[in-house]
Specification:
This protein is α+β, with helices and mostly antiparallel strands. Helix content is about 40%, strand content about 15%. It has seven helices and six strands, in the order H-H-E-H-H-E-E-H-H-E-E-E-H. The strands form two sheets. The chain has a four-stranded mixed β-sheet with strand order 1-6-5-4, covered by helices on one side.
Length: about 250
């Protein structure tokens, strides 16, 4: 098998390959629902139309994110990921949510076995934002521990083939470009990628999306509601996340 040969070249034992396989098949067992923001336009297998929209978070939100993350980029990514899980639940009503991310930036450049990680998390009715952050942390830690298993094999074993216009496992990914190079997932036909960047000036978002599925007004609204959600949960992390209302009465 090609991948086993590649493992041998990297000095990784075949039994380790089996451990990775067991983890991913267990993590992705059961009924899988692809999580996406509702489309503006029908998905017809149209060519991917790359668009992006940039946004800078307020100093209030950025300072709180940096405070909660204790200036750790990996923790910052976990907090933002937890927030995106909540936003997707608000949009879809689905509590078993799957997101994508990439492996951490590697110190060397080579032909990696895998660069794509799948993050699956379930939101129960009583979960607080603090509890969700800890849950997401565990999910990311385990995904990184088992990262050397090709996403192509996962899709094959789940009978979820990928096409040029559709990635069947998840539609949305999240990166913190300080630690996740966008090029690691650029080959996937994803509907939306929340790409964050932290600098001394604050925290910015570059939301990359498929313009054949979403209009600019929808993307602006998603960003506005995400910022509103963060402002709500970041300052009350002990509160239950599903109780948070991010729409005004008029909306």
């Amino acid at each position: 098998m090609e991948y086993l040969q590649r493992y041998g070249e990297l000095g990784i034992a075949s039994h380790q390959f089996a451990i990775y396989e067991k983890y991913w098949l267990a993590k992705l067992a059961g009924n899988l629902i692809k999580t996406s923001f509702p489309y503006d336009f029908p998905k017809k297998g149209s060519p991917f139309k790359k668009e992006s929209m940039k946004y800078e978070f307020s100093k209030n939100i950025a300072n709180r994110l940096i405070q909660l993350s204790n200036q750790s980029d990996s923790r910052l990514h976990m907090i933002l990921t937890a927030g995106l899980f909540v936003l997707l639940e608000k949009y879809t009503g689905i509590k078993d949510i799957i997101l994508g991310t990439s492996i951490y930036r590697q110190d060397f450049e080579s032909e990696f076995i895998n660069t794509v990680l799948t993050l699956r998390s379930t939101l129960n009715e009583a979960i607080t934002f603090k509890e969700l952050i800890l849950q997401v942390r565990q999910t990311i830690v385990k995904a990184v521990e088992n990262q050397n298993y090709p996403i192509e094999m996962v899709l094959e074993q789940l009978n979820m083939p990928m096409s040029e216009s559709n990635f069947s496992l998840f539609g949305v990914a999240i990166l913190l470009e300080n630690i996740h190079p966008y090029r690691y997932i650029n080959h996937l036909p994803l509907e939306m990628v929340f790409s964050f960047f932290r600098s001394n000036e604050g925290i910015k978002l570059d939301l990359k999306y498929d313009g054949s599925l979403y209009g600019k007004v929808t993307i602006e609204r998603i960003i506005t509601l995400f910022a509103r959600l963060l402002e709500s949960v970041l300052f009350q992390i002990e509160g239950r996340v599903l109780d948070r209302e991010i729409l005004s009465g008029e909306e």
